[in-house]
Design a protein that fits this description.
36% helix, 5-stranded mixed β-sheet, 139 residues, alpha+beta, 7 helices
Length: 139
């Protein structure tokens, strides 16, 4: 992933306090560039990590060890135009942009835990906001 402005991401995600406030401390979401899948584990292969703490959501960069080795609950993989679009929407509504990019197939979304584990960790509001609402008697 190209160098990112952590402060802008932090401010953008902080504006969604209610969406992320229910996440259990330790919950982690990763965002990687599509090219990182081929570069996984190599020097310079990075991912943006959103992680929940007792004080709220924090944003940092870290290395991307590979799809099977990454320790995130949710992994989002975005192509370069999608990353640029997200960056451009940081001052407005980045989660609405992410939702649209997922629908358009420019972001691949991987839930790395079961739905019940994600619900227990407090992801329900975020998943709903991104368009993954599940309702019905099977809940």
């Amino acid at each position: 992933m190209n160098p990112v402005d952590i402060g802008r991401w932090q401010a953008a995600l902080a504006s969604y306090g209610n969406t992320f406030s229910c996440l259990a401390p330790g919950s982690r979401i990763g965002l990687v560039a599509e090219a990182a899948l081929g570069d996984a584990g190599r020097a310079g292969s990075s991912m943006l990590i959103w992680y929940a703490t007792n004080q709220g959501l924090r944003v940092e960069t870290g290395s991307f060890p590979g799809f099977e080795q990454t320790d995130v609950d949710i992994l989002m993989v975005a192509d370069d135009p999608a990353l640029a679009c997200m960056n451009d929407s940081l001052a407005t509504d980045v989660l609405a942009t992410v939702r649209q990019l997922i629908r358009d197939g420019q972001i691949l979304f991987f839930a790395r835990k079961t739905r019940s584990v994600l619900d227990d960790a407090g992801y329900e509001d975020l998943l709903e906001q991104l368009g993954f609402a599940f309702m019905g008697a099977c809940r």
